[in-house]
Amino acid sequence: MTSTDPNNQADENVLAYAAITLCGNPSQGPTPQLQEIAAWRQGTLSSHRSTEILSHVANDPACFQHWLDIVEAQRWVDEETGSASDTQNAAHSAATHTNSVPPNTPSSDNEATSTVISQGIQAIRGLFQQPLPIYGGAFSALILAVLIAPMLRTGDSFTLQQQLDRNTDAYIARGSGLIGTPPLRRNTRSLGTLFDKLSVSDVERQHFQNGLQTFYQKLQASDDTQNTANTAWERWLTELPVDNVDCTIAQDPTHCSAVADEFVWLGQWAFTTTATCELVAEQGIASLKSTAWKEQYSTYERLRTLPNVAQSAFFAPWLPALETKTPDALCAIAGSVMAVGQ
Amino acid sequence: MHCARLPVLSWPSANSRPLNSENTALSANALREERLKKLYSDPWVKRLRAFVARRYHDFGDWEGWFEEAHQNLALKINAMPEDQDISDALIFAVFKNELISVKRNRLGYPRPRAWLQQFSDLGQDLFEWMCLQRLPRDQIIALAQNKAKDNAYKKALPDNATSAGDNHKQLLIELTDTMIQKNECDGMRPNVTTNIDNDAVIQIAADTPSVEAATDHAQLELMLSLILGAANVTDDIKDQAAARLVHLKASLNKEPLLDDMDVLVLRCYYFQGMSQNEVAKLVKQPLQRVVRRREATIKRIRQFMETHGLTRESFEL
Questions:
Q1: pLDDT (tens digit, 9 = 90+) per residue, A147-191?
Q2: Do B85 and A44 lie within an 8 Å CB cutoff?
Q3: DSSP letter string over A143-180?
Q4: Are A280 and A288 in contact (CB under 8 A)?
Q5: Which terminus of chain A is less hemmed in, N or C, by CB atoms within 10 Å?
Q6: pLDDT digits 0-9 by tens, A116-152
Q7: Which of B216, B248, B267 comes nearest A20 by C-beta?
Q8: From the CA of A93, how many Å to the nearest CA of chain B?
Q9: Which of B52, B80, B111, B162 has the most A C-beta neighbours within 10 Å, making it the best mutation to test the interface with A?
Q10: How many angstroms separate the CA atoms of B5 and A326, rounded?
Q11: Cα nearest neighbour of B262 on chain A
């Protein structure tokens, strides 16, 4: 490797080496012991000493290795003993159907967990027709998120949000992360932006992109080390808007507020389904049982017939009725919608 | 592999029991005795053995080393102050270090040069595989990739490797090529070991540097090898680079180029082959911030190197 071509990954390795060895900073304060690095990681040290230890961990390869050793050891312990907080978080999330990372508070849903975990495992295994990796507490938590809340709410039919969250959680439970590459980004031009106002289409697209973020945030919040995005996806994701649409700058603020939920759902559905389709394409069509596909078709039908979605000049043309309910047809629609809306 | 759920075994510490001036000494001894009993209890011995068997099954005679490492662990824990907060994770981390120390002390392993030590355990592993076990280059790269996959803080990379995996493989190729070019295996450097019997036993300090000091010029020479190819690093080139290094250091003294978190992110991403998502989780920052930080840092260092004439184009080859 001798090139300094900026696009060359090897070039970045050299730059990183130069940065660390020539341009790094001297370590400050006394060299920390292993237990002090552990305390630093837990955030129990003073601000001043934390700064000093960061300088050691960053600039001293031995301290850096100690830090990695503690991280690895903690993961080992979590694997052994399971993680109670994951169980509580996931159950709380299922019960409240929020998209944000839930607080670590006990939930009454947890009290019914032990009797249905084995049923949940069998149900999920049956859904995907293959053995699932066991991640201890995190896996159990996902089982709860997918199954427990509905079981505790017997008699209620699923809302569209619940259905979307079930699909998303089922995907996350597979622990595959994001595979493949993101769709090519289309640059569309809106006249509305020329007047500093968001057009109707702009609003719908941005809500849709918030929905894409919703899926990714849930993936990130799953705390499963296998659910990580590769670099191409990470770059794509950083370009998505993080904040909600500011309806005060929309040409039609009332419309902007009224349609928010529907297009966020559409975005979440598009990303979940596209990711599922990528995974199925890699693992084979039989990896997803027919009952799971039926649920996917049902979700799609509910979405495309939402009043604002059905009337959307921007999205409706990409959401035809499924005349033949096949995975390929559904995947093609999800991929097209995602490419258009991103 | 499914691990049975084990009860969380909390460690006794002075913080968890009241101490008064009358029975402080007695309580401290009792505390230490409790800790030792716990370490030698069946559940803990099983846990430690499971840890070694799973994580370090390629350690060769790890069964033989286990006893000594376990004893050293007990000594270290026994020497910790009463108010030290001891978690299970700390025990495993200390034990891992003791196991490696036993292995190195027992077999008299020398240490790699300072430039390779920059890569922490990866550098040590590469040195052992190439210089001590005399494995071929391709096998070394495969071993390193497999070990990276087994690390708990990394996800398993699919066969069609992600960009993070590709970058890591590229790094491994560069490192092994550089080791060969620099005759890394020629001669052996003295082994600097920690004496577990001395008073410093409670100091689980970072390893001391090797006898070959990690000077700026040594690092610069390696970097020139990476940029220009070892064959092109003539004395004239070295002199040119050394002069430019003086100006570079002067600039850095006026205004540091990187902060510690920048360096940490780079070390995790480029030296350990982690994905940005993994790095974000480790340093507990949002992914977007980590991505932007990494990209901005690389851009900054690139401009800095160009400004100070430390790129391929700026040398007269």
A1: 444 444 433 456 788 788 888 877 877 777 777 677 765 544 444
A2: yes
A3: HIIIIIHHHHTTTPPPPHHHHHHHHHHHHHHTT--B-S
A4: yes
A5: N
A6: 444 544 544 444 444 444 444 444 444 444 444 444 4
A7: B267
A8: 20
A9: B162
A10: 42
A11: A58
CB-CB under 8 Å, A68 with B121: yes
Instruction: Write the secondary structure of A212-253 as one string of H (helix), E (strand) and C (coil).
Output: HHHHHHHHHHCCCCCCCECHHHHHHHHCCCCCCCCHHHECCH
Buried b (16+ CB within 10 A) or exposed e, A264-298: bbbbbbbbbbbbbbbbbeeeeeebbeeebbebbee
- What residues have CB less than 8 Å from B278, skipping those under 6 apart? A225, A228, B153, B154, B155, B164, B268
Binned at pLDDT 50, 70 and 90, residue A81 comes out as confident
What sign does the CA torsion over B62, B64, B66, B71 have? Answer: negative
**Residue B60 confidence class, pLDDT cut points 50, 70, 90:** low
Who among A13, A66, A77 is closest to B206 (CB)?
A: A66
Nearest CB to A220 within list B51, B270, B287: B287
Cβ contacts (< 8 Å) between B203 and chain A: which residues?
Answer: 33
CA A10 to chain CA mean position, Å: 30
Contacts across the A-B interface (CB distance below 8 Å): 247
- Contact yes or no for B153 and A72 at CB 8 A: yes
Residue with tokens 């002199």, as numbered in its chain: B239
Q: Is the pLDDT of residue B145 over 80?
A: yes
Question: ∠ CA A275-A277-A283 to the nearest 5 degrees?
Answer: 105
End-to-end CA distance of chain B: 55
Quote the pLDDT of residue B150.
67
Centre a 10 Å sphere on the Cβ of residue B316 and count the other Cβ atoms it contains.
Answer: 6
- Collapse the DSSP code of B211 into the 3-class scheme (helix H, G, I; strand E, B; otherwise coil) and give the result: coil
Helices (H), chain A: 9-21, 34-42, 47-59, 61-81, 84-96, 113-128, 137-143, 149-152, 160-173, 191-194, 200-221, 231-238, 253-283, 290-304, 307-310, 327-341
